[in-house]
Structures
1.
Amino acid sequence: MLVMTPAARKSQRRKERRALEARRGKLGRTRYDALVKELADVIRLAFDAGATASLWGMEGPLRAGIRADLCLQGWSWGTADLTACDMLAEAFRRVRAVRPTWNEGQPEWVIHEGLLIERTRCVRCSAPLPEGHHKFCGKACSMAMHHYIASLKAANEQTAVRLAVNSKRKTS
Ligand SMILES: [Zn+2]
C-alpha cells in the first residue's frame, strides 16, 4: 500500500489542482462556469421532471456528450474526458447530489427478509417463462442446466481427489 507523507500529499494535491486549473483555463473560466451551471440545471430539470430516477441518471450520456463536443473541437480524448469529469463533478456538487454507497447499489439492498421475487425469465437462456413454468422455459433448458451442474459437481470432486492425493504424497 502506498503511504504518502503529509508533504507529498500536499504536493500531489497542488499538482492535481494545477492540472484542473489548466483544463479550466483551456476552455476559458467564464465559459467553463456557464457550462457547469447549464449542466446543473439540466440535471436538476431531468430529475424534477421524473426523466431520471436519481440525480446521477444523466451522468454517462452527459460525460460522453461533453467529451465528444470537446474532441470535435480538437481536444485530445484524455483531456476532453478529464474536463467532462471535472465539469460534471462541479455540477453534481451544485445540485447537492450524494453518490449512493456500494451497499446501496446492490440488488439485495431492496430485498427485505421474507420477500419473494417471482422469476419471469428462464434461468439458463433468459427467455420469458411460459405459463406454469417457474424456473426453466422448457425441458431442454432444464436438462441442460442439470447436466451442467452435475458436471460442475463432478469436476469439483475430481479436483478434491487430486488435491487429497497430492497432499498425501507430499507428507509421506
Ligand atoms: Zn430456457
2.
Amino acid sequence: MKNRYASNTVDNHLAGLTHFAHWITQCNIDVKSINEKLIQQFLDDHLPRCNCEKPAFYNAKDLRGALGHLLVLLRANAIIADPSIGLTPVDEELRRFDDHMNHVRGLAPKTTRNHYLSIIRCLLFEQFADRAVVISAIKPDHIRQFVASQSTLCSAPASISAPISALRGYFRYRATLGDQVHHLIGVTCFPANWQQATLPKALSNSEVERLLGALVHDGPSALRTAAIVHCALDLGLRSSEVAYLGLDDIDWSAATITLRGTKGRREDVMPLPAATGHAIANYLKYERPPTSNRAVFVRNVAPRDQPVGPDLIRKSIRQAYLKPVCPTHGPIFCGTPWPTAYWRVAVPSKRWPMCFGIARSIPPWFMPNSIAGIL
Ligand SMILES: [Zn+2]
C-alpha cells in the first residue's frame, strides 16, 4: 500500500499470501526457510495440484508478485538470509542474465526483466534442476517442447510472444559469452504465421548444407544474397534487422555486430561469426555499388543509393532457398507468403568456427584494411 498499488492488486496479493501461508503451515515449513526455491516449489509443484480449501487464490502471476514482495520484506527485517547464500547454479545463471538485461540492454526491472527471468527459470529448472547450467545440453527439441508447453498457458497465439522474446533474449545473451546457440535461436520464432498446434520446424542440417551450397552461383546479386542468407542463418536475424544493418554497426576489429533495429528499439551486440563476416566482406568488396548510403545492403537498381527493404531481404532468401528445393518445406513457397519462421533456421555446429566472435579466428584477408576503402 505504501507503494500505491491499485486496491485490487493489494487484495490479490493478500489473498495470494494467505494461500502461501496456509500451504507452509500445512507442510510445517518454518518461516525462516522461505526463499526463492521454496516459492518456486509452491508455484510449480503445489499450485497445479492444489486442493486447499476454497476459495484459495491461485493466479500465478499475482502469487509470484506477492511472494516477491514477501521475500523483500522478510530480508529487510532480517528474518531470512540474504539471497546470495545458497544460490543454485540456475539462480546464479539467472542473476547474471538479469545483470545483462539491466546493464547492457537497459530493460525495466519490474516488468519485462522479471517476466523474462520467470520464463527462463522454468526452462533452466526443467533442464538442470540443481545441477550446473550447460548450455550445450539444451537441444532444439527441448526448446520446441518448452514453447509448446508455454503456448498451452496462453489464451491467444499472440501471447506466446513474451516467452519467445525471453528465450531469444537469453540465447542472445549466451551468444555474447561465445556460446554456440544459433540452432536454439533458430527455433524461437514469433507466431506471425503459425498456430499453436503447428509449431515451426527448423531446417535439418542437410537442408542447411544444401541451402548454403546453392549460394555458390553467379548472378548480379549473388554475393548480396549470400551475405543476407548468412545473416539470417548464422545470427537468426529478422528480415528487418538484416535490412537495417549499417556499416557502422559492424566492428571488424572486435568481430561484433550491433543490432539497432530490434523489437523494443533496443541494441544488441552480438559476436560476428567468421562465416557471416566473410560473406558480408565479400559483398562489400566485390558487389556493393558505390554509394554514400551507410546501409550494408543497398539497392542495385533505381531508386539507387537506398537501402534494401525487409521485403527484398525475404525475397532474396526465398529465391536462394528455392534453388536447393528442400522437399520438407517446398510447398510453402507455392501458395503462401514466406513465413518469417522458416528462414530463422538452424545451422550445424561444424559450420561455426571455434571463434564465434573472437578476432583470432578471422583470416588475414578479413581484417579491416582489406575493406577499409569501402568503409
Ligand atoms: Zn493450495
3.
Amino acid sequence: MDIGVATRSDSAPPAARKRWVPRSLVLGSTLFALGLISLFTGHVASEIEWSQLRKAWRSRKGGGYSEAVDIWKSKFSNLYYGCSQKGPHFRSAVPERKSNGYLLIATSGGLNQQRTGITDAVVVARILNATLVVPQLDHHSFWKDDSDFVNIFDVDWFISFLSKDVRIVKRIPDKVMRSMEKPPYTMRAPRKSTPEYYLGEVLPILLRRRALQLTKFDYRLANRLDEELQKLRCRVNYHALRFTKPIQTIGQKLVTTMRSMTSRFIAIHLRFEPDMLAFSGCYYGGGEKERSELGAIRKRWETLPELIPEDERSRGRCPLTPHEVGLMLSALGFGNDSYLYVASGEIYGGEKTLQPLKELFPNFFNKEMLAGDDLKPFLPFASRLAAIDYIVCDESDVFVTNNNGNMAKILAGRRRYMGHKRTIRPNTKKLSSLFKARNKMNKETFARKVKSCQKGFMGEPDEMRPGRGDFQEFPSSCICRKPERKNNETLEKLQNRPPVVG
Ligand SMILES: *[C@@H]1O[C@H](CO)[C@@H](O)[C@H](O)[C@H]1NC(C)=O
Ligand SMILES: *[C@@H]1O[C@H](CO)[C@@H](O)[C@H](O)[C@H]1NC(C)=O
Ligand SMILES: *[C@@H]1O[C@H](CO)[C@@H](O)[C@H](O)[C@H]1NC(C)=O
C-alpha cells in the first residue's frame, strides 16, 4: 500500500519499521516531519474545502440544500465527462533521432507516489523534447518491492498510447551508449519545479551529455501547467498507465465477486499501520498499551516535535479509526446491509481494531478473503497488492478513505474524471469534536451533524475549482461539462448551486 508521503516531504517515507535504515533517512528536519504529518490532514486542500463549506452553508441558508443527497451517486455527475484529448495545436512528438537526448527517470516511494512520478516524467520529457526511457521503479522504499515497470504496468501499451505525445523507448540504444563519453549525468530536480527550471537548468546538461537521469522523481513538476500539459498528465495517468494482465485479471475478479453478492458496494481505504499512527502523534483510545507501543515507534524519529494528542485531533490531523469510519458511514445513511471492501495494509491492533467496524457493517470483505490462494503469487510484492486494491477501489460505487495520502488523492481525482463517482473524504477537523461528543446526543442528532460536517467532502462536481488543490486530486483541466440541452432538467437544479468548473 501506498505509504502516502506527503507532497511536501522531500525524503523517504517514514522508514521506521526497520531499525537498520540509514540514519540519514531517519534524521529528517522538522519540516520533513511536518510535511509527513500533513498527509493525514489535507493541509493542501483544507483551504479550499473550508471555502466550499462556507459556500455550502450560505447556499443552504438560501434553501439550496434542502433536498436529500443520494449517498450512492451524485445527481450532477452525468453533467460532466473526462476530456483529455489534445488540442489541434499540440504538435506531435519529436522523433528519436531529432530529440534533445535521452531522459532516464528513477521514481520514488510507494505505488501511487511513483505513479505521480511517471506521469510527470512524460510531461517533463515533452517539455524538453527528450526521448523518455521507461522509468525505473523504486526498489528501496519503505515497501521494499523489487517489481519493475513491466511487472506492474503494460509497457507496450504505455509506449504506444503516448507515441504522438512523447517518444518512449525501453532502453538507450547500444549504439548511442557506445558513443557516449561518460555515463548519464545524474541529478535531482527540486520539488514542484516549473517548466522554466527544466528548460533553463536541465536542458543544457541533456544537450551536452545526450543522456540524463533524474532521481527521486515524484512531485518534481509544478502543480500548475498550461492546459495542454495538464491534459497530457491526464492521458498518462488515466489512460496510458494500465496494470499488467495478471494484476487486472485478479483485480477484476475481486470486483466481479463483490458484484455477485451485491449490486453496489463501498470501498474503504484504511491507513492504520503502526508507523503511521505513531508518526501522527495522535491517541486512538488504546490506553497505556497503545501509548507505550506507539511511543516506542515514535522514538525512532529523532527530530519529531512534541505533540499534544488532543490538539492534533482537534486540528483534524488524526486519521479516522476503522470504528469512526463506520460511524460516519452509518450516520450518512448507509444501511448495515451495505457491502464493504476494505483496502489496507497492516492494521494496528488487527482484528480487535476492525471489530467495531464489522459490527456496524457485517458484510465486510478484503482481498485476502475474496481471492484466497489466487493472491499467493502477489504476496511478496507490496506494489502489486496495492495495485489490486487500487482496481477494486476504483470500480467501487462509493470510495471512502480515512486519510489524505497519495492513493486517496489519486483515486479521488481519477473518480472525478471517470464521472464524479461518489468519493467521501472525512472532514476530520469538524468530525473530531463530533466523535468526542457522540455520547452526549442521540443517534438522530449525531447523524444530522455528521451530514452537515460532510457537505463539501462528498466528491460532488462543484467541490472542484480550477487551479485549486493538487492537480492529482482536482484534475480540473480534464473535466468538461456536457452541452446544456442534454441536461435541461438537472441543469436547472444545478443553477441554484455554487458555480462549477466548465
Ligand atoms: C521542441 O520542438 C519543437 C518543434 O520542433 C520546437 O518548436 C521547440 O522549440 C522545441 N523545444 C525544445 C526545448 O527543444
Ligand atoms: C440493521 O439495521 C436494522 C434497522 O435499521 C436493525 O433492525 C437490525 O437489527 C440491524 N442489524 C444488525 C446486525 O445490526
Ligand atoms: C429547458 O427547456 C425548456 C423548454 O424546453 C426551456 O424553456 C428552458 O429554458 C430550458 N432550460 C435550460 C436551463 O436550458
4.
Amino acid sequence: MLQKRSFKKIYKNYLEFFAADHCVLKCWQCANFSNVNYPKIAKLATFCKDLKTLAKIMHVETLRFCGGEPLLNNEIVKFIKVAREINFAYTIGLCTNGILLKDVDDELFSQIDYLNVSLYPLSNYRNLKIERDSIIKIAKIKRKKYKFFLKFFEFYCFKPWRYSYVDLPINNSPLVKRIYAACSRAKNCHTIYDGYYYKCAMPIYLRRYLINMQISSKNILNYEKIDGVPLHQPDLYNRLITYLNSDVPLKACNYCLGTSGKNMRIKQVSMKELKDSKTKKINMIEDLLDISKLRESEKNASVARSRSLKQMGILKKINKGIDKDALIRTVGLRDVDSF
Ligand code: SF4
Ligand code: SF4
C-alpha cells in the first residue's frame, strides 16, 4: 500500500499514535506509564483534526498505532482509515502485546501494512487466561491470509527491558543534557496527542504519574503544555522546525533515563500496588542509570550524525523537489536512509 511521496514538507521516518493510554498488561517502568495510567481511549475526532493539521506540513514514512494497548480502542480501524484518507504516511502499522488479537475483527488485518507483536516472559500472562503460543499462532494465521508484514519482539526477563524514569528530579543539568542527546526516543518516538506534537510520551503522562505517586508535589510542571508544540496555532511549520532542532532537553527529561537506564527484570506492577507498598521504593538516578550504555549511545549518536551529514551532501544534489532547508535543519534528528 505504498503511497505517492510529497515533498516540500518536513519529512520524518516514523510517527506513533497512542490509541489507548492504558493496557491489559502492567509492565513496571513501561515507557508510556501504561501500567499506571487510568483508562483513556483516544478520540477519533481529535485524531482526525490533529492529523489533518500536521499533514499540511509533515509527511512520514510510517505511522504506527500503539499505546498502551491499541486494541482496547474499538474504533482502531476507523483511525487507520482516517490516516489513509489523509495520506499522511506511506505505510501504516500497529504494535500490540497480542493478548486481544483473538477478539479483533478481520477488517483490521486487511487495513495494516505491518503488525508488531511484543512477547513477554510467560509469567506476564498469568491470570489473563491466554497462552503465549496462541498469540503467535493467531498472528501467523492472519498474516498468511492478509499478507501484512509481521514481526515479533521478544522481551526476556532482563534484556532488553530497561528502567525508563526516576521518581525524583535529576539535579544535574549536564547529565540531563547528555541523557537527552543520547536518547533514541527523542529522535524516533515522536507522537501527537490531544492537539500537541511531542518528542516522546514522557511529557504527556509524567505529571499524572508524579501526582499519583505522591512522592513530592514540589516543582511538578505542566509538561503536557511546556514540552509539546500546539498544533492549531499559526506558523506551525516554523515552530515545529525549531522544536525538532532544539538541543535543549525537555522539562520532563529531568525525571527520565531516556534509553540509558539499567537492564531490569520485567514484572507486572499496577499503580495500586506501587502506592500500597509499605516499603515504597523511590527510584533514584544513581541506582538506575547505565553509564556505559549512555557512553555507547553518545558515540553512536555522533557517528549517525556524521553519516547523515555526508548523505545530505549527496541528497542535496539529487532531490530537487525536496525542501532542502528543512532537511538540513532537521539533519541528525532522523534517519535519511529512506530517501
Ligand atoms: S505491554 Fe507492557 S510495555 Fe507494552 S504498553 Fe502494555 S504495559 Fe506498557
Ligand atoms: S523525556 Fe527526554 S530523555 Fe526521556 S524519553 Fe523523552 S526526550 Fe528522551
